[in-house]
């Protein structure tokens, strides 16, 4: 892992948006598609805002972009305001010229007897698209990436997981109470994330400082799934000063 610490998350987000825009344009100039792996949550909001601005003001086009979101709660209706489906449309997709057919977000309403087949088809779709060119990640206080909670296997693919208690506590306010937070989710696996050709993880604020230290300086272990990123050869952690404050 290579890590970069910025004075502010704002400045950092602009830099990441610039990298994504350059990749989209570069692929466009070659007549190629650009496959993005996307995250939800508070961390990437400013990146999406900047991409929307670039679309509006600089003509950045998403016509050649295919996206795969990391995860979705289970069960979760698409048009529920708490869904990641809703989040992505509100922050990005409704404001750019992406082809709706190129948007992939795990379906939070897939019936239990169909989840296995559904998860395999999500993996296949990623492979058929040519694999992920750029994967954007946040990190949970449990060390999760996507919703790969502690105990997740290095070789895991897209699957149903049980959310960690801490993750549900952190999501509590958005759901107006922890009791309303779903207990399960569908998430891309560690292997799915690792297969991306480029990975950028964002972390802002003091409450991420401890898990960032463990992830970058700790031993690789399923207890902190994000430590698996140490073995990726093109992974950058983009931090603000507070998130990087415990690094030695
Ligand atoms: C979201 C996701 C999660 C979040 C993580 C951090 O799609 O996969 O891993 O990135 O929980 O969330 P925030 O950014 O809200 O601190």
Report on the structure:
The chain is an alpha/beta fold. It has a single domain (2-240), classed as Rossmann fold. The chain has helices at 9-29, 45-58, 84-91, 115-128, 165-171, 190-194, 209-217, and strands at 2-6, 34-38, 65-69, 71-74, 103-104, 134-137, 159-162, 184-187, 199-203, 235-240. The chain has a 7-stranded parallel beta sheet with strand order 1-10-9-6-2-3-5, covered by helices on one side. Strands 4-8-7 form a 3-stranded antiparallel beta sheet. Fructose -6-phosphate is lined by residues 39-43, 70-71, 138-140, 144-147.
Helix and strand content put the structural class at alpha/beta
CATH architecture: 3-Layer(aba) Sandwich
State Rg.
Answer: 17 Å
Helix amount: 25-40%
Q: Could you name the CATH class?
A: Alpha Beta
What fraction strand?
Answer: 15-25%
Please mark out the parts with pLDDT under 50 across 5 or more consecutive residues, or reply none: none
Protein name: Glucosamine-6-phosphate deaminase
Family: Belongs to the glucosamine/galactosamine-6-phosphate isomerase family. NagB subfamily.
Active site: 71 (proton acceptor), 144 (proton acceptor), 149 (for ring-opening step)
Domain Glucosamine/galactosamine-6-phosphate isomerase: 8-234
Can you summarize this structure?
The protein has 248 residues and is an alpha/beta fold. Helix content is 31%, strand content 18%.
List the helices and strands and how they pair.
Layout: E1 2-6, H1 9-29, E2 34-38, H2 45-58, E3 65-69, E4 71-74, H3 84-91, E5 103-104, H4 115-128, E6 134-137, E7 159-162, H5 165-171, E8 184-187, H6 190-194, E9 199-203, H7 209-217, E10 235-240
Parallel strand pairs: 1-10, 2-3, 2-6, 3-5, 6-9, 9-10
Antiparallel strand pairs: 4-8, 7-8
Helix pairs in contact: 1-2
The structure holds fructose -6-phosphate.
């Amino acid at each position: 892992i290579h890590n970069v610490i910025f004075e502010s998350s704002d400045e950092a987000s602009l830099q990441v948006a610039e990298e994504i825009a350059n990749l989209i344009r570069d692929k466009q100039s070659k007549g190629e598609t650009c496959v993005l792996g996307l995250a939800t949550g508070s961390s990437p909001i400013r990146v999406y805002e900047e991409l929307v601005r670039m679309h509006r003001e600089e003509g950045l086009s998403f016509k050649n972009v295919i996206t795969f979101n990391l995860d979705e709660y289970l069960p979760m209706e698409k048009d529920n305001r708490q869904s990641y489906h809703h989040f992505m449309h509100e922050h990005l997709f409704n404001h750019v010229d992406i082809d709706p057919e190129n948007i992939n977000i795990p379906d939070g309403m897939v019936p239990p007897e169909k989840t296995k087949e559904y998860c395999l088809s999500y993996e296949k779709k990623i492979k058929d698209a040519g694999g992920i060119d750029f994967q954007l990640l946040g990190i949970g206080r449990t060390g999760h990436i996507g919703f790969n909670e502690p105990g997740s296997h290095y070789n895991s693919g897209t699957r149903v997981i049980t959310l960690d208690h801490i993750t549900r506590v952190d999501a509590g306010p958005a759901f107006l109470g922890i009791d309303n937070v779903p207990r399960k989710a569908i998430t891309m696996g560690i292997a799915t994330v690792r297969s991306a050709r480029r990975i950028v993880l964002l972390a802002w604020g003091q409450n991420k400082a401890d898990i960032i230290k463990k992830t970058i300086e700790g031993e690789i272990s399923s207890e902190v799934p994000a430590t698996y990123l140490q073995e990726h050869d093109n992974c950058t952690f983009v931090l603000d000063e507070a998130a990087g404050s415990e690094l030695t």
